[in-house]
Amino acid sequence: MTRIRLFALILLAVTLLALAAGGIYLVTRPGAAPPPADTLEPPPTKPVVDPVVPEPFEPTVGLYTGRGSWDPDLAAMHNFLDRYGLDSVEIDQETLGSADLGKLCDILVFVGGFSSEYLHYVGYHANIRTFVEQGGSFVGFCAGAYYASATMVWQGKHLDYPLKLFSGEAAGPLNIGWGSLAAIELNREIPFNQDFGESMEIWYFDGPCFTGLDPGVDVLASYRANGEAAVIAFPLGRGRVLLSGPHPELGYRPAGDQLDLEGGNGAQWPWLYEALRWLSTPGKM
């Protein structure tokens, strides 16, 4: 082998070694082409979280308009329901006793007024109780709350009431004063209360506090004045009950002794709306 041919073979071998080394570098250096896809682990994926969609809330609210109901309070409730786009139907004394209430409404409301007239003139207590036990909701404000309780205590005198949705006592009036703002402490364990402050003021017109609570009764709010329950809720059969001593549906102007029926002057409509939504949502109580 001539010297030139030997040199050529050596040069060729060196070139091949250099190319091989360069090829390895091109694969492993930063920025180089990635290895085949089937050798890579898939990138971690974030869990898909569905947005929270509020439960539909489209009840029909029945307002009892017969003897004992207070016309200004009925007007305030009509305005409240209109503001929030909730359907309503008026239910008089005859309808209350003769109709299948579950076909008329989802929530039956007894506003403030005169519980003694509810006691003596309604006369169809069993029909109301059946409505609740079969899945309806009952809401009572002030006189409506006295009426729904087994025992009304008025100025120390005990009176038995027949509806007995609440098995305890509704006692009043409190030493707050008619037409006064009652300071109310909200129970932070009730979910919708967490969207509001720790306390609020609600107008008080001689409504009750609630004592003798069974374990299944939720206290939504308490009076700061005495620590007793001001608003309670509980299941009854397949239905639910909410009773309130003060009036979240009413505003008031003491200087002129004028009620505000349009949601101003201290009315707590946003809180009341969320209370009704919570009351009507299955599984929330």
List the domain count as a whole number: 2
Query: Looking at the structure, what is the overall shape?
Result: globular
- Measured between the Cα atoms of the first and last residue, the distance is 101 Å
What is the share of helical residues? 25-40%
- Give the SSE string: HEHEHHEHHEHEEEEEEEEEEEH
Question: Which structural class is indicated by helix and strand composition?
Answer: alpha/beta
Number of strands: 15
Low-pLDDT segments, ≥5 res: 16-35
Biggest sheet strand order reads 2-1-3-4-13-12-11-8-9
Number of helices: 8
| Computed Rg | 35 Å
- Which band does the percent of strand residues land in? 25-35%
Q: Under CATH, the topology of the largest domain is which?
A: Rossmann fold
Mean pLDDT: 87
Query: According to CATH, what is the class of the largest domain?
Result: Alpha Beta
CATH architecture assignment name of the largest domain: 3-Layer(aba) Sandwich
> Which quaternary structure do these chains form?
single chain
**Biggest sheet, in brief?**
9 strands, mixed
Write the topology of this structure.
Layout: H1 3-28, E1 60-64, H2 71-83, E2 87-91, H3 93-98, H4 101-104, E3 107-110, H5 115-121, H6 125-133, E4 137-141, H7 143-148, E5 149-154, E6 157-160, E7 166-172, E8 180-186, E9 199-204, E10 209-211, E11 218-223, E12 229-236, E13 239-244, E14 251-253, E15 258-260, H8 269-280
Parallel strand pairs: 1-2, 1-3, 3-4, 4-13, 5-7
Antiparallel strand pairs: 5-6, 7-10, 8-9, 8-11, 11-12, 12-13, 14-15
